[in-house]
Design a protein that fits this description.
The protein has two helices and no strands. It has 68 residues and is mostly helical. The longest helix has 32 residues.
Length: 68
Amino acid sequence: MTVNFSSDYHKLIHDNRERVKELTCINKTVSIIRENRPVTETLRRVVHFLPPAWQYPENTVARILYDS
């Protein structure tokens, strides 16, 4: 019983950390969008904090293609 509790606990902690990373990315994106800067500048800034929001940021690269 203790083993299951421990593994369930660690999974919950892991899942919670992933949600925090995702919400941080969303909040930063919203904050930048609210600045009402040009689209290209906004996208340039947003792309930098996308990889840290993914489960394996060390293996993640972000690229945003925008055709004005």
